[in-house]
Write a structure and sequence with these properties.
Length: 473
C-alpha cells in the first residue's frame, strides 16, 4: 500500500511540473508571451524564398556538328545564338566571317541591338543575302558607329582575296565576360546541313580577347594592314596568327614552321602512342595546289620518320593524292576522305569544312606537348593570301581531348579509306586498323574519292552567287 502511494504521488508531481513548465513554442520563441508563440508559428508556416536562378554561362570547350542528323547539325549555331540572346545591354558582339544567310540569326542580332547591345559584323563581299540586308537595315553600314554590318572589299586586311576568318566575340553574355568563339563554322544553312565544322569556346579570356580585338579593329578599316602577317600570343596557351602571309614556299610556310618542330620519337608523359611515337592528325576541308603538295610531302616525311600520322580531307588535288600514294619505307600513309557524293551527280555535297592539325608528343624541346591548330585556313595557296586565321591552343588538355575525340569519331564513322592508295588487306573487324574502311552511319550513299576529272569548286569559285547551296562556304 505504501509503495502504491509513492508511485501515485510521483505521478501527480510530474503532472504539476509539466503544467507549470513553458511549452515548446514558448521555449523556442525566446519569450514567455502568448503573442511570441503565435508569431513563431506564423513564421514557420511562411514558404521559404525560392533560390535565385543560376546565371547562364556559355558552355566552354570544343564543339562539333553532325550534318544531316537532325538537331545535331545545328549545335554550333545554337551555341552562338544562345550567347547572342544572353548578351547584356551596352555590351559588344563582334563577328567576322565569310558567309551569312541565316535570317533566324540575323533576327536575334537585331533583337540584341534593340535591347542596347552594340552589334558589329564584318562579312565577305561575294554575296549579299536577305539575312545580310536585314542587318544593313537594322544596324547600318557605318563602321564609325557602335553597331554596323559591313562587307569588306575583296578582303578586309588583304586585297584580291576574301575575308575568310570565322570568329565571334562577346564582351558580356550571361555571367561571362570576354567570351571568344572561333573555328570553321559560318552562319549558313550549308555549314550545318552539308558540312562538318568545329567551334572552340572560352570565357573570361581577357588577353585572348584583346588579341582578337586588335585583329578585328584592323579588319574593320577595310584596307591592307601593315604588317600583313600578324602574330599575337595570349599567355602560354594561345597564339593567334592572321594572314595574308607575305612569303610562300616550304621554307617559310607557317604550317611548315609548326611541323618542323615535330620529332617523331621520344614522346612521353602519355602524349604519344603506346611506343612513344608522336601523334600527328589532320582533318582538312581543301588540300590542293602547289602549297598543298609540299604540305603533303611534309606529312609523308613525318610518317616515314616514325610519327603516328593519320590524315582526312574533304577534297584533295591530284598532286596531293599522288604524294599520298607514294609508298614510304613504312608503307603507305593512312588517309581517309570525308567527301561524299550523296546525290551521285559527280559533285561532293557532304564533306568536312574543318581546318585542324593535332600534335601530341615530342614537339620542340618538350617531349609531352599537346597542340591543337584550328581556324579558317585551308591547305592551299588561298589559305595564306586572304584574311585567314590560324589559331593555336597549346597544352590545354580539355581542348586536346575534345579535338582528338572528334577526329576519331570522324575517322571511324564519317569517312572512308581513299581508293587510290593500294593498302594491304585490312582487318575489317578492327576499328583501330588505319586502313579499315568505315561507311558513314546512316548515309547509305556512294563514297566518291574526288579525282581530277570530278568537278569541284575552289574557294575562289565559291564566291560566285547563284550556284548550289553548298557553294558559298
Amino acid at each position: 500500500m505504501k509503495r502504491l502511494f509513492v508511485v501515485v504521488f510521483a505521478a501527480v508531481v510530474a503532472l504539476v511540473v509539466t503544467a507549470l513548465s513553458p511549452g515548446p513554442s514558448l521555449a523556442t520563441s525566446g519569450s514567455g508571451s502568448k503573442h511570441s508563440a503565435v508569431a513563431s508559428a506564423h513564421d514557420a508556416a511562411k514558404p521559404k524564398p525560392k533560390p535565385k536562378p543560376k546565371k547562364w554561362f556559355p558552355a566552354q570547350g570544343a564543339y562539333f556538328n553532325t550534318p544531316r542528323h537532325g538537331a545535331k547539325q545545328w549545335v554550333l549555331h545554337q551555341h552562338i545564338v544562345a550567347a547572342i540572346n544572353h548578351a547584356k545591354p551596352d555590351s559588344y558582339i563582334r563577328i567576322a566571317l565569310f558567309s551569312f544567310d541565316r535570317k533566324y540569326v540575323a533576327s536575334k542580332l537585331v533583337q540584341a541591338k534593340k535591347r542596347g547591345v552594340h552589334v558589329q559584323v564584318l562579312l565577305n563581299d561575294h554575296q549579299v543575302t536577305p539575312a545580310q540586308r536585314m542587318l544593313h537595315r537594322a544596324l547600318g553600314t557605318n563602321r564609325d558607329k557602335k553597331s554596323f554590318a559591313y562587307e569588306c572589299s575583296h578582303g578586309c586586311r588583304s586585297r584580291g582575296e576574301n575575308l575568310h576568318t570565322k570568329f565571334y566575340l562577346f564582351s558580356h553574355t550571361g555571367g561571362a565576360y570576354r567570351t571568344v568563339m572561333t573555328g570553321s563554322v559560318n552562319l549558313t544553312g550549308n555549314s550545318a546541313m552539308n558540312q562538318y565544322n568545329d567551334l572552340y569556346v572560352i570565357n573570361n579570356a581577357k588577353r585572348l580577347t584583346k588579341r582578337f580585338l586588335v585583329l578585328f579593329d584592323q579588319m574593320k578599316k577595310d584596307k591592307p594592314a601593315h604588317p600583313a602577317w600578324l602574330v599575337q600570343k595570349a599567355g602560354k596557351s594561345f597564339k593567334l596568327e592572321a594572314t595574308p602571309f607575305p612569303n610562300s614556299g616550304p621554307h617559310h610556310d607557317p604550317i611548315i614552321s609548326i611541323l618542323n618542330k615535330v620529332k617523331c620519337l621520344g614522346a612521353n608523359g602519355g602524349t604519344g602512342n603506346k611506343v612513344h611515337h608522336t601523334i600527328v592528325r589532320v582533318i582538312m576541308h581543301a588540300w590542293n595546289d602547289d602549297r598543298g603538295r609540299y604540305l603533303a610531302q611534309k606529312m609523308r616525311q613525318l610518317y616515314a620518320r616514325g610519327c603516328d600520322v593519320k590524315l582526312q580531307y574533304g577534297f584533295a588535288g591530284a598532286s596531293v593524292r599522288d604524294t599520298f600514294a607514294s609508298k614510304t619505307k613504312r608503307g603507305f600513309i593512312p588517309v581517309h576522305t570525308t567527301g561524299k557524293d550523296t546525290n551521285e551527280d559527280g559533285l561532293i555535297d557532304l564533306y568536312t569544312h574543318q581546318k585542324e592539325l593535332l600534335i601530341s608528343g615530342h614537339y620542340g624541346k618538350s617531349r609531352h606537348t599537346r597542340l591543337v591548330v584550328t581556324g579558317s585556313s585551308n591547305y592551299n595557296i588561298e589559305g595564306l593570301r586572304g584574311d585567314e586565321e590560324i589559331f593555336l591552343i597549346k597544352n590545354r588538355f580539355g581542348a586536346w581531348k575534345d579535338y582528338i575525340n572528334d577526329f576519331t569519331r570522324m575517322w571511324t564513322k564519317f569517312s572512308t579509306r581513299v581508293k587510290y592508295i593500294p593498302y594491304p588487306n585490312a582487318d575489317p573487324t578492327d576499328p583501330t586498323d588505319p586502313t579499315t574502311t568505315t561507311r558513314a552511319m546512316g548515309m547509305g550513299s556512294s563514297m566518291v574519292e574526288p579525282r581530277a576529272q570530278v568537278v569541284r569548286f575552289t574557294i575562289a569559285q565559291e564566291a560566285k552567287p547563284g550556284g548550289p547551296a553548298w557553294e558559298g562556304d
